[in-house]
Amino acid sequence: MANFSNNTRFNSHISRTFNRELEDLRNAVLVMGGEIEVQYQDALEALLQHDIKLAEKVILNDVKINAMEVEIDSECLRILAIRNPTASDLRLVMTVSKMVIELERMGDEIEKIAQFVNSTEFVYSDELKLGITHMAQDVQTILRDTFNAFARQDLKTTMNIFALERLVDEKYNELRLQLEQEIQQNVQHIHYWLDVNTLIRSFERIADRCVNLCEYLVYLAGGKDLRHNSGKKIQKKIQALIKS
Amino acid sequence: MVKLFKSTKPALKKLTAEDISVEISDLSVYFGKKSVLRDISMVIPKHRITSFIGQSGCGKTTLISSMNRMNDLNKNHRCTGSITIDGQNIHSKKINVAKLRTQVGMVFQAPNPFPMSIYDNVAFGLRLQKQIPRRQLDEAVERALKNAVLWDEVKDQLFASASILSGGQQQRLMIARALALKPKILLLDEPTSALDPLATLHIEELMQTLKKNTTIVMITHNMQQAARLSDYTAFFHQGELVEYADSDKLFTQPKHKQTEDYITGRYG
C-alpha cells in the first residue's frame, strides 16, 4: 500500500520524462474530473432553477468532455507503446484509460439532465421534486469524494463512497415508486413521466459510475479487482489493502 | 465458470517432483573472500522458460554458471548448499563434469563461433564425445540446425566459414551447437542483447519451440523480453533472490518494493 499512499511514487523513475508523462496523465484525469464536477453543478442548478440558458451551456460543454476522453486515451496508448510500463505504472495507465470512459459517460448523463431542463416543463409534485433534489445532492457528494479520493490517493474515502452509493440506490427505488403513483394520478403526461424516469435514472447512473471509478482506484492501489464483488467482500478487500 | 484465458502452467508452489528440472537449496557462492550469492533456494520448472533479472553484478551469471559447474574453472570459487538436476546432486563426486556440461548447455551473450565451418561448429561437441560415423554425424548436424531454425538458411553452405553468418544467424548457430548434444537444460546468458529486433524475434520464437523438450533458463536485461517470453521470473539483488514468481504476476503485481523499483525503472 505504500505505493499508493505515497504521493511521490509516480515521480521517482530514473527517467524524468517518464515521471512527467505519468504526472501529466494523472493531472489530466483530475482536470477532466474537475470539468465533470462543474458540469454537474451547472446541470443541477439549471434543473432546480429551471434555467434553460445554463442547461444549454451544459449541453454545449459536453463536447469538451468528449475531446478530453479522446486526448487522454490517446496519451495512454502512446505511453503504452513507448514506455512499455510495468507493475504500478501499467496499472496507472490502464486505470486512467478505463476511468476516462466512465467520466465521458458521466458527462453524457449530465447532458441528459440538461436536456430534460430544456425540453420539459415541471409538473411533478413538490414531494417528488424534493426527493430528486435530495438524491441529486447525495450524488454530488459522491462525485466530489470520488475525485478527492483519486487526487489524494485515499482508499478510506472509497469505502464511504460504496456505502453512500447504496443509499442512492435506495432513494432511486423510492423515487420510482413515487413516480408510479404520480403517473397513475396524471396519466395524460406519459411522455413527460418517461423523461422524469430518465432523469432519476441519470442521477443513479452517475453514482454507479463513481463506484466504478472507486473500483479502479483500488485496483490501481494494490492490483485487487473489485468488480462484481458483494459489498462485504469489497469492504474486506479495501481494509486489507489499507492495513498492508 | 468458463475460463477464457486459461493458464497452462502450474503455480510455483504447486509444482510436483516431476515438474521440477533443477532444485537449488541454500546455495551460497564465493570467489575468494567475496560472497557472490547468498542462500539461494529455488526450483526451475521442467520444459518451461525461466528468466533471471537484476542489475549487473547481482549474481545471475554466477548462478546459471553454477548449474553446469562452469564456475569450477575459477580456482577461487567455493560454494555451499546444493544443486540437484533430475534428482542428482551435481556436486557429488560421482558426477562426470564433462557429461554434465553436455546435458546442461550454455549459450553466451556474444556469439562465439569457432574459426571453422558451420558444419564443424555444430559437430564439434559431438566429435569430442565419441567417434561417430559420418552419416550419423550428418544427421545430428542437420537435426540441430533444423531445431535451431537455421537449416534453411545455411544448408547450401554448410562447409563455409561460420564467420560469414550474420549476428542473429551466429547466435542460432551457437544454440544449434548446444542442441547437437541434446541437452536437458539450456542456459542462455543474454542471448539477444547483441541482436537486432528481427533476429531477436527469431531467437524468441526458437525458444518457444525448444521449451517443449528442453528446460530453458535465460538471463536478460530486457524486461519486456522476460515478461513476454518466460513462464517464471526471478529477480536478484546483490546476491540474493528477492522475488520469484509467475512472470505475469511479477510484472503486473510484484510483491516486493525492490522488484517494483527495478522493473519500473525507479531509484533502487
Observed structural traits:
heterodimer; A: 244 residues; mainly alpha; Methane Monooxygenase Hydroxylase, Chain G, domain 1; 8 helices; 85% helix; disordered N terminus; B: 268 residues; alpha/beta; Rossmann fold; six-stranded mixed beta sheet; 10 strands; globular
Give an account of the 3D structure.
Chain A is an all-alpha fold and 244 residues long. Chain A has one domain: Up-down Bundle (Methane Monooxygenase Hydroxylase, Chain G, domain 1). Chain A has helices spanning 2-5, 16-49, 52-83, 87-119, 126-152, 155-185, 190-222, 231-243. Mean pLDDT of chain A is 89; it is low at 1-8. Chain B has a single domain, classed as P-loop containing nucleotide triphosphate hydrolases (Rossmann fold, 3-Layer(aba) Sandwich), CATH 3.40.50.300. In chain B, 34% of the residues lie in helices and 25% in strands. Chain B has helices at residues 60-67, 97-103, 118-129, 134-147, 151-154, 167-179, 197-210, 223-229, 247-252, 257-263, and strands spanning 20-31, 34-45, 49-54, 77-85, 88-89, 104-107, 185-189, 215-219, 232-237, 240-246. Chain B has a 6-stranded mixed β-sheet with strand order 6-7-8-3-9-10, sandwiched between helices. In chain B, a hairpin with a 2-residue loop joins β1 (20-31) and β2 (34-45). The radius of gyration of chain B is 19 Å and the shape is globular. The N and C termini of chain B lie far apart (41 Å). The mean pLDDT of chain B is 93.
Q: What secondary-structure arrangement, pairings included, does this model have?
A:
The complex is a heterodimer of chains A (244) and B (268).
Chain A: H1 2-5, H2 16-49, H3 52-83, H4 87-119, H5 126-152, H6 155-185, H7 190-222, H8 231-243
Chain B: E1 20-31, E2 34-45, E3 49-54, H1 60-67, E4 77-85, E5 88-89, H2 97-103, E6 104-107, H3 118-129, H4 134-147, H5 151-154, H6 167-179, E7 185-189, H7 197-210, E8 215-219, H8 223-229, E9 232-237, E10 240-246, H9 247-252, H10 257-263
Parallel strand pairs in B: 3-8, 3-9, 6-7, 7-8
Antiparallel strand pairs in B: 1-2, 1-4, 4-5, 9-10
Helix pairs in contact in B: 3-4, 3-6, 4-6, 6-7
